[in-house]
TrEMBL record:
Pfam families: MFS_1. Residues 14-427 form the Major facilitator superfamily (MFS) profile domain. Its main location: membrane. This is MFS transporter. It comes from Kosakonia oryzae. GO terms for cellular component: plasma membrane.
């Protein structure tokens, strides 16, 4: 009598780790913005000094994307991500000690630069692990889950940090959030493994991942002896990938409006009180969380219903990009309800269409997933530098948010155009052996 062996579901424990690591990735980034009003008064930082401290993170983060991807391809996601998580968390803790130094601003800038550099491999590692551990039909949901971590960080962890700030001091925000990250990083290194090296997974789950288009053997066997610059270039300048890069820049531009200028917009342009701003600003984050999960579910559902990979992935992206343009309605009303609704719909749409990492996982050559993810994340996160600066220039010259909102809304149209006319059909790129 043949006994049917039930398939294990170890991959979902990996998804939990991906989610938690991404939550604290964003939480560590947000620590400075939470403590800035109190810390700046105590240490005498002016707005220009704080602006410098905010921006240097993005500079080093973008600059180290490709080297971070190379590390992932060489040493694997488990080791690089776990060590990075511990590393950036320790740097976060040290930010609570800058008052001990003669030049606290210089120390803070150095630490923020270091944190941005160490965090660089995080999202490429998320993408790489999703390819190792999940079949194609589950990858949209997986991507949506770890992408949704940013909204959880904004909606839950940030209020917790304000409680710490209120009851203790700004130093302890860095200490506690950093310490939690260190503990999580240690658990990561102990518990996370590549599929073929994990003791709890059975052959049925490995076969399920492999048969569904995943790559469970990625990192467990050697690929080509060398990956040439010509091969890497062929991926970076591929028309499909260029379209995906443009789309990710547009999506990230919308994100960074909400991460930087949105509270100021509500306070200055719409005349809301600071207390109301704190409440209202969380509503789009909740909408973004719902949209992010729903986009991944819809994409995977389309795939299981027999639609092509191109249709299943591009349909939510195109719908999300188009719907995000409703943000411009905020320019034509004085109603707080309409403004909040427009912003919430836009952030929901941004979340719904935020499947760029999933597309990257589906299309990049498995031999260079880390580097491909680094290039992709570098292009997307140029928006973390460009968007705050562009909006700042617009405000300085017009003293109005109207054109700033139009700029953010235009990102949806540009992303829509890119996915419709540049990306084309989605298929995994194969490295040509002649370039090796």
């Amino acid at each position: 009598m043949n006994t049917i062996i039930k398939r294990t579901n170890v991959r979902y424990s990996i998804l939990v780790f991906l989610f938690l690591a991404t939550v604290f990735n964003y939480a560590d980034r947000a620590t400075l913005s939470v403590v800035a009003p109190i810390m700046s008064k105590e240490l005498g930082f002016d707005p220009e000094a704080l602006g410098l401290a905010f921006s240097v993170f993005g500079i080093s983060y973008v600059a180290l994307q490709i080297p971070g991807g190379w590390l992932l391809d060489k040493y694997g996601s488990r080791l690089v991500y776990g060590c990075a998580l511990i590393g950036w968390s320790i740097v976060t803790m040290f930010q609570g000690t800058i008052y001990l130094y003669a030049s606290p601003l210089i120390v803070l800038v150095v630490l923020r630069l270091l944190m941005g550099a160490i965090e660089a491999p995080a999202f490429p590692a998320n993408s790489r692990l999703s390819v190792q551990w999940f079949p194609n039909k589950e990858r949209g949901f997986v991507t949506a889950v770890y992408q949704a971590a940013q909204y959880i960080s904004l909606g839950i962890i940030t209020p917790l940090m304000t409680i710490i700030l209120h009851n203790l001091s700004w130093h302890y925000v860095f200490y506690y959030i950093g310490a939690i990250g260190v503990v999580l990083g240690i658990f990561w290194l102990v518990k996370v493994r590549d599929p073929l090296a994990h003791k709890s997974i059975n052959q049925q789950e490995i076969d399920y991942i492999r048969d569904g288009g995943g790559e469970p053997s990625l990192g467990s066997k050697k690929g080509p002896a060398k990956i040439s610059l010509a091969q890497i270039k062929s991926v970076c300048i591929n028309r499909m990938m260029i379209g995906v890069y443009i789309g990710q820049f547009c999506v990230t531009s919308i994100t960074w409006f909400f991460l930087t200028w949105f509270p100021t917009y509500l306070y200055q342009a719409k005349g809301m009180s600071i207390l109301k701003v704190g409440f209202i600003a969380s509503i789009p984050a909740i909408a973004g969380f719902i949209g992010g999960l729903l986009g991944g579910v819809v994409s995977d559902w389309l795939l299981t219903r027999g639609y092509s990979l191109t249709t299943a992935r591009k349909f939510p992206v195109i719908c999300g990009m188009l719907l995000s343009c409703v943000i411009v309605l905020a320019n034509y009303t004085d109603s707080e309800v309409v403004v909040v609704a427009a912003m919430s719909v836009a952030f929901f749409a941004k979340g719904f269409g935020n499947l760029g990492w999933c597309v990257l996982s589906d299309t990049s050559p498995k031999e260079v997933l880390g580097i491909a993810g680094g290039v992709f994340n570098m292009c997307g996160n140029l928006a973390s530098i460009v968007t705050p600066l562009v909006i700042g220039v617009i405000l300085a010259n017009t003293h109005s948010f109207d054109y700033a909102i139009l700029y953010v809304g235009s990102m949806g149209l540009i992303g829509l155009f890119s996915y419709l006319f540049i990306v084309g059909s989605l298929e995994r790129i194969t490295l040509t052996p002649t370039a090796a």
